[in-house]
Amino acid sequence: MSTSHGSCHCGRIRFEVDGAPAGVMACNCSICQRKGALMWFVPREQLRLLTPEADSSVYRFNKHVIQHRFCPVCGIHPYGEGTDPKGQTMAAVNVRCLEDVDLAALPVTAFDGRAL
Predict the structure, then answer these.
(1) Amino acid 42: pLDDT
(2) d(CA 49, CA 66)
(3) Would you list the DSSP string of 43-91?
(4) Given the DSSP bridges, would you call strands 108-111 and 24-27 parallel, antiparallel or unpaired?
(5) Residue range(s) defining the domain that contains residue 55
(6) Does 116 reside within a domain?
(7) Which residues of the chain have pLDDT under 70?
(8) Phi, psi at residue 104, to the nearest 5°?
(9) What is the per-residue pLDDT for 23?
(10) Angle, CA 94 vertex, CA 12 and CA 106 arms, to 5°
(11) Contact at 8 Å (CB) between 112 and 32?
């Protein structure tokens, strides 16, 4: 299995993820639309932080079920955490924060987060 590496812009938050994205999701909810994130969902245990979790800040809104992680220095949102409908802990990795990813080659699935 391959490993993908990523970070925020300043490098305060660095991580690695088992695997490589085969596709991503673009959500139109009020925060994702503003961030412009392209999310790749993986089981949380596939995401390993290489820097202390305390180096990130957390933003929660609406139903407070997703922890939107961001860097308090550069403001970049590299990943989020939550649970899927089956109760499995998941990570939503912003593929724009991954190294060496050809974004144009990834199929994008639209998700209507405003409808929730």
Answers:
(1) 97
(2) 18
(3) EGGGEEESS-GGGSEEE--TTS--EEEE-TTT----EEEEE-TTS-EEE
(4) parallel
(5) 3-111
(6) no
(7) none
(8) -65, -20
(9) 96
(10) 140
(11) no
| 88 part of a folded domain | yes
* Interior angle at CA 22, CA 21 and CA 27, nearest 5: 75
Tell me, what's the pLDDT at 52? Answer: 97
Report the number of distinct structural domains present in the chain.
1
Task: Specify the pLDDT at position 48.
Answer: 98
6 touches 93 (CB < 8 A): yes
CATH at 65: 2.170.150.70
With respect to residue 100, please indicate whether it lies within any of the assigned structural domains: yes
At which residue do the structure tokens 């089981």 appear? 43
Report the pLDDT value the prediction gives residue 98, as an integer from 0 to 100.
Answer: 98
**On the CB side of 106, how many CA atoms lie within 13 Å of its CA?**
21
Query: Which distant-in-sequence residues (6+ apart) come within 8 Å of 2 by Cβ?
Result: 18, 19, 20
The tokens for 37 are: 């994130």
